[in-house]
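Hi F.,

I've been meaning to write this up properly since the lab meeting, where we talked about keeping a consistent format for the predictions we share between groups. The idea is simple: the sequence comes first, exactly as it goes in, then the C-alpha cells exactly as they come out, then a line or two of notes. No screenshots and no reformatting. I'm using this chain as the first example so we have something concrete to point to.
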Amino acid sequence: MTSDQLVLTLIRRSPSGASALQIAKAALGPRARRHSKDSLNMIGLAIAARLCGSGVLEATKTNQFRLKAERAA
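Output, unedited:
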C-alpha cells in the first residue's frame, strides 16, 4: 500500500478524522520513531495539505482532517 492509501484507511476508520500527527505516523510507519513530535506534525500537515488540495480531505475546526462528504458516500 502507498502512504496515501494508509492515510485514507486511517481516516476512514475514525469518525472524527485524524490529526496531522496520526497522518504522519500512518504514512511513515515504523520510521516515524526517528522523528520528533514537531517534525511529525509538519510532515502530517504537508501530507494533509496535499490531499486537501487534491479534493480528497477537508480540515475540521478541531485540527482534524476527514474525508470530504461527497467522497465518503
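Notes:
The two ends are 22 Å apart (CA to CA).
The helical segments are 3-13, 20-28, 37-53, 69-72.

If this format works for you, I'll send the rest the same way.

G.
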